[in-house]
Specification:
CATH topology of chain B: Helix Hairpins
Distance between the termini of chain B: 48 Å
Shape of chain A: globular
Distance between the termini of chain A: 41 Å
CATH architecture of chain B: Orthogonal Bundle
Largest interface: A-C, 83 and 70 residues
Chains: A mainly alpha (594), B mainly alpha (114), C mainly alpha (244)
Radius of gyration of chain B: 19 Å
Order of helices and strands of chain B: HHH
Number of helices of chain B: 3
Oligomer: heterotrimer
Structural class of chain B: mainly alpha
CATH class of chain B: Mainly Alpha
Shape of chain B: elongated
Structural class of chain A: mainly alpha
Number of strands of chain B: 0
Helix content of chain A: over 70%
Strand order of the largest sheet of chain A: 1-2
Helix content of chain B: 55-70%
Number of strands of chain A: 2
Number of domains of chain B: 1
Order of helices and strands of chain A: HHEEHHHHHHHHHHHHHHHHHHHH
């Protein structure tokens, strides 16, 4: 067993505990230093693990408890390419955030960095685990650390965001746990591969369907898929920028990844006969999220809230990739979320720079107030989000669209529309802030949010603009250029093929049998995809210009305002939507998948 | 009759959800969240129960005696700790909301919307 | 959404959800009829493999010890998080509240009960892997014993008994010890968190290998965590706050 596997979880957690114990006796910068060192180490380990997952997964049994006769006694980590990649991305995002916020959060002592480290450890555990209950534990650990990281500060808005986060995600986790109880009652196992093997022989009866519903819904809440997405916009909008970088860059993506991580080993057996119907349901969910996310992003004036909705839109596109239920589209989703997660992280840091300089992240208030360098970063990021070839997310989207055969030929058009909305929103903001174009009043964008200026510590910030911009630029370069890694799309497809091969994967985890060598390669992006990518970028730029110079008055219609009003900020509304969503999704499953 | 404990778990989850949705007081809301979580304890422990079995403690009891499932008990223990931590944290947030806003009514605190 | 639309929408959805959940649990084996392999195998092998009579404790600290590590750190994180949210916003205008219990019998009986409760808690921890109990359960009882000081006397006595800086060290130390024990196994060439101490005689306090150590690390951390949590909330109550 590879000794590096437990380290991405153990190192941050140990560092957090030690820092909490002795941090009050040490100088304030010690917390920043520990966080920086640990996140760099985690990134490096993540990259090494990624290189080692080329031919087979890295399976690690904690406590040395290997399975006996197919019964898993202990907890396993099952590191595949997607998990290792997301783990490395988390480390990199955290390193950039720590550099960005060097010494900003010192007045609380070491507590802020303690919680950041716990959050990183939980994220790594969630990315790498292969045990269903273990996934629940790390999911809740992420939520606990995140509530405080979001709600930190004296303003009411962060507290409300934290409250909504905690309550909605809490219910998501209960649904997951209820589902775990059902599956355990049927199969007597908690290891994903073992549950799958046990279920594979049987058919998809009520328990399996409801178990699938509950487990998937729990992860979809974390991912921020419509209609479980309401908490995400509130929380991401009010969290401090360095924390938001981790949320938008990797936490939502992990929720999405978990859906695939659990579906393929556990449910692909009994649900194989219903793949067509399941595909329709998941792709519909993904498309709705992509379009709603993009549309809402376009209707925001607060940049962090805009980026939150961009995240929701992109998660929707990722869900389409998973929902198509093929290896290639799964690989496409992984590439897409990895590269765009880094780009979104970079954009959040650029917003952080803006906040530091002019004390606002409101698009209309910040008009004409940005630095040219930040403007370039923001514009490049916006184009990357729109999917301009040949950036990383373009290859991801091309692979997703490759799976859109048969009745799904309309998919590239819809994905283009969603990308135009998200990219257009970002480019519009870039034009207004950095070039001073457009009006400074747009009623349809709503009132100015009571945005917390937490980036303002009591003492003047010691971080230099150069460091902050460099962190943002570094993330952008990696996010945009990740597709330049030789043969990466091919490797992603090969890894996805192994994930979707349930019997071989189970044999690998439970008996240690090496999987058959797959000669899978990624097809070159099709002409349709290239056209779609170019159209998305051009369309986004065009939409942005139209919005800036024509104004948004045409949008002031009742449906638009009603849509915005639905995102009321009231937690009881959100829980109602959660219940309605899960009931509707369950009804769809039961009707279509029997 | 033999499915009544499971029905109880379903009831607890749904009634907890109802409590949250109709709540006008944040502390009440957070406690309803805990009620919903207790549905998972009931489900897990009910799943692992075996009739005429003893607890999985083998002090003074011969090995091979029929015992209930120990794994769900360990899972429930973890679940209880999770519940306590989330409860403590959300209550702290509720306290701060009261200090900053002067109200604990969820319908009256939104500062972020749209 | 106004309350008028919210509640009907919720009731319809909840009815649907209840039906779905009912549909799901109908597929479970009847209550009392469970035959899952995980528990059956463990009940048979734990005594031989780990010399521990409390199978649940063996599952919590050994077989599924990694979950417990996450859970430990969760409690630890909750304390840090509560402190972050509540501590830094407390201004100096704290009103000193006098809240000592006036009734002599209550004080006397309450304070007399404190050492008894703490001793009970320590017993539950110490024998936790032999008979029902364990670090979490016993740690909670010890913490409640300390809280009894506040209930029977006054909060300042509680605060003086549990100085934050000291308890912080125990809390972080307990969590760190747990992770360090797990890492230690790794450094020693074994798997992460593998049990590496001699297993001892069944039924003795020294049985179970590293389980007793993890048990005590957990107990220390849980006690310290609850003491800190109670302290944070008590401070809130004791401080005069004007909303807004």
């Amino acid at each position: 067993m590879d000794v590096l596997v437990p380290l991405p979880v153990a190192l941050p957690l140990l560092a957090a505990a030690v820092l909490a114990a002795v941090g009050t006796f040490l100088p304030a910068w010690f917390g920043d230093l520990v966080a920086a060192v640990v996140s760099v180490a985690v990134t490096a380990i993540g990259v090494v693990l990624l290189t080692r997952t080329g031919r087979h997964d890295l399976v690690y049994w904690f406590g040395g408890w290997r399975p006996s006769h197919g019964v898993a006694l202990g907890i396993a980590f099952d590191v595949d390419g997607a998990g290792a990649a997301l783990g490395a991305v988390a480390g990199l995002l955290m390193a950039a955030s720590v550099a960005f916020s060097w010494r900003y959060f010192d007045e609380t002592g070491p507590l802020f960095h303690v919680l950041l480290l716990v959050f990183l450890g939980a994220v790594e555990g969630f990315a790498l685990s292969g045990d269903l209950f273990n996934l629940f534990v790390f999911l809740e650990l992420m939520t606990v650390a995140a509530i405080a990281l979001t709600g930190y500060g004296d303003e009411p808005a962060p507290l409300q965001g934290a409250l909504n986060f905690g309550i909605v995600n809490g219910f998501g986790a209960f649904f997951l746990l209820f589902g775990i109880g059902l599956l355990y009652g049927r199969t007597g196992a908690l290891n994903l591969a073992q549950i799958g093997r046990s279920l594979a022989g049987g058919r998809a009866d009520g328990l399996v369907l409801v178990g699938f519903l509950l487990v998937t819904a729990g992860f979809l809440v974390k991912a921020g898929v419509v209609p479980f997405h309401f908490w995400l916009a509130d929380a991401y909008a009010v969290a401090p920028a360095p924390v938001c970088v981790l949320y938008s860059g990797v936490m939502s993506d992990l929720g999405l990844n978990a859906v695939a991580k659990v579906y393929w080993p556990v449910f692909s057996g009994p649900l194989a006969a219903h793949a067509t119907a399941l595909r329709a349901i998941l792709v519909t969910l993904g498309v709705v999220s992509a379009l709603l996310g993009g549309a809402m992003a376009f209707l925001q004036r607060d940049l962090k809230r805009m980026l939150a909705f961009v995240t929701i839109g992109q998660i929707g596109i990722g869900l389409v990739g998973i929902g198509l239920l093929t290896a290639r589209s799964l690989a496409g989703t992984t590439l897409y979320v990895v590269s765009d997660g880094l780009v979104r992280g970079s954009l959040l840091l650029v917003v952080g720079v803006l906040i530091r300089r002019i004390r606002s992240c409101d698009e209309l208030n910040a008009r004409g107030g940005g630095l040219p360098v930040s403007g370039v970063l923001f514009a490049v990021g916006g184009l990357a989000i729109a999917g301009l070839p040949p950036v990383g997310s373009f290859f991801g989207r091309a692979l997703i669209e490759d799976g859109a055969t048969g009745g799904y030929r309309w998919l590239p058009v819809v994905l283009t529309a969603a990308s135009i909305l998200s990219g257009g929103a970002l480019l519009r903001a870039a034009g207004r802030i950095y070039l001073g174009w457009g009006a400074d009043r747009e009623p349809v964008l709503g009132e100015e949010q009571a945005s917390p200026e937490q980036e303002e510590p009591a003492h003047p910030p010691r971080g230099s603009l150069v460091v902050m911009l460099a962190s943002a630029a570094a993330l952008l370069v990696v996010g945009v250029g990740v597709a330049a890694w030789p043969g990466l799309p091919g490797k992603a497809v090969a890894a996805a093929v192994r994930t979707t091969d349930r019997p071989a994967h189970a044999a690998e985890v439970l008996e240690g049998k090496p999987p058959p060598h797959e000669r899978a390669s990624a097809p070159a992006p099709s002409g349709t995809s290239i056209a779609a990518g170019l159209a998305s970028a051009a369309g986004a730029a065009g939409l942005a210009l139209l919005a800036l110079f024509d104004g948004l008055g045409a949008l002031a219609r009742r449906p638009v305002l009603r849509l915005k009003a639905l995102h009321s900020g009231i937690v009881t509304d959100y829980v109602t939507w959660l219940t309605a969503g899960i009931a509707a999704l369950g009804a769809a499953f039961v009707l279509a998948l029997r | 009759m033999s499915y009544l404990p499971y029905a109880l778990a379903v009831w607890l989850l749904v009634v907890g959800l109802y409590g949250v949705v109709t709540s006008r007081h944040l502390v009440h809301l957070v406690v309803c969240l805990t009620v919903a979580q207790s549905s998972t304890y009931v489900l897990l422990l009910a799943v692992g129960y075996r009739k005429h079995a003893t607890a999985p403690i083998f002090k003074g009891i011969p090995l091979g005696t029929k015992a209930t499932d120990p794994v769900v008990q360990a899972l429930t223990l973890t679940d209880v700790v999770v519940s306590v931590t989330v409860l403590a944290l959300l209550l702290a947030v509720a306290v701060q909301v009261y200090v900053r806003e002067g109200t604990l009514d969820p319908d009256e605190i939104p500062a972020v919307r749209g | 959404m106004s309350a008028r639309t919210r509640v009907p929408l919720f009731l319809v959805s909840a009815a649907g959800l209840a039906a779905l959940l009912g549909f799901g649990v109908a597929g479970l084996p009847a209550f009392g009829d469970y035959h899952g392999p995980y528990g059956l195998v463990l009940n048979h092998v734990v005594l031989a493999q780990r010399h521990t009579t409390n199978v649940v404790a063996a599952v919590v600290f050994d077989y599924r010890g990694f979950d417990t590590l996450g859970e430990e750190l969760m409690l630890f994180a909750a304390v840090a998080a509560t402190a972050l949210i509540l501590r830094e916003a407390r201004e100096e205008e704290a009103r000193q509240v006098v809240d000592s219990v006036q009734s002599e019998p209550v004080r006397a009986v309450g304070l007399a009960a404190v050492p008894v409760v703490i001793l009970l808690g320590l017993f539950v921890v110490a024998f936790g892997y032999l008979t029902p109990g364990g670090g979490f359960q016993g740690g909670t009882v010890v913490a409640l014993g300390l809280l009894l000081v506040y209930l029977a006397a006054e909060h300042r006595a509680y605060r003086r008994l549990t100085p934050t800086h000291v308890v912080d060290v125990f809390e972080g130390g307990g969590a760190a010890a747990f992770v360090a024990l797990a890492l230690g196994a790794l450094l020693g060439g074994l798997a992460f968190q593998q049990n590496f101490l001699p297993l001892g005689r069944i039924g003795a306090l020294t049985s179970g290998g590293s389980i007793p150590l993890l048990n005590w690390a957990t107990a220390i951390e849980v006690t310290a965590a609850f003491v800190l949590l109670f302290g944070e909330f008590l401070e809130e109550v004791m401080v005069e706050r004007r909303p807004g």
